[in-house]
Structures are given as structure tokens and as C-alpha cells.
Amino acid sequence: NQCPHQPPPGWDCPTCAWFANGGGSDNEPGGYLNATFSHFVGGKAVGPDLYHTKAGVYKANTNGEFAGYTTSVIANKSIAWLHTVAGDNKPFLLTVASKGPHVPATPAPWYAKGTYID
């Protein structure tokens, strides 16, 4: 998946242009249309096999170890990145999406008990 280097029609406002023209760094989650996205946190490369898996479940991990529940891992990495840019007095945009609403819907242990009436 490659993003265009220019904002789509209608998104050419000064703020959008700032993000599209290098508002973020190429090696971190910055830049509105960053075309250098090449891999996910677990190291899985972006490509057709990721979006068209034939069998099995892709297991993301950090250096081979279970890193936690996806939503928590993504949130923690996002917060860590925010701490690196928040003091720069420069505008930034961070859009975070997790697989939380998708199956399998196995809750983290701290949510599993007592969340719903059994």
C-alpha cells in the first residue's frame, strides 16, 4: 500500500499540505501521507500476503515474546511516541487505529471478569 505524495483533491488546505510535505519524519508515525510505511510493530512487512492470508492467524510479537494485547500495545507505543514530539512546539497529528473491534474478541484478563452481567 503506497500513499500518494500529494493530498487528494479537496485536502489541499495549508494544514493538510504541511502534513503531506514533510510534517512528519519518514521513520516514525508522522506525516499525513507518509509513503514509507513498510512494516508493522511486530516486524511483519506490508504486502499482498498480509492482506490476503491463506490460512492461520498472524501472531504479532516483539522479538518473539508476547507483548500484550494489541489495543494496549498500540496505545502504549502511541503514547511513547507522543512523549517524543509533544515538547517540540510543532503541530503534529497521530491517528491511531487498532484491531479492537475485530475478532477474535478475547478480552485482556483485567476486562474479562465482571465487565458484563453473566
Structural features, described:
The chain has four helices and no strands. The longest helix has 16 residues, at 70-85. It has one domain (14-112). Helices cover 29% and strands 0% of the residues.
Our estimate of the beta-strand percent is: under 5%
Q: What sort of overall outline do the alpha carbons produce when their principal axes are compared?
A: extended
Q: In angstroms, what is the radius of gyration?
A: 17 Å
Helix and strand string, N-terminal first? HHHH
Q: What is the helix tally?
A: 4
- Unreliable stretches: 24-35, 50-55
Classify the helix fraction into a percent range.
25-40%
How many domains, as an integer? 1
Query: Terminal Cα separation, in Å?
Result: 43 Å
Largest sheet: none
- Could you give the count of β-strands? 0
Whole-number average pLDDT?
Answer: 63
| Structure class | mainly alpha
Task: Provide the descriptors you would attach to this structure in a database record.
118 residues; single chain; mainly alpha; 4 helices; 29% helix
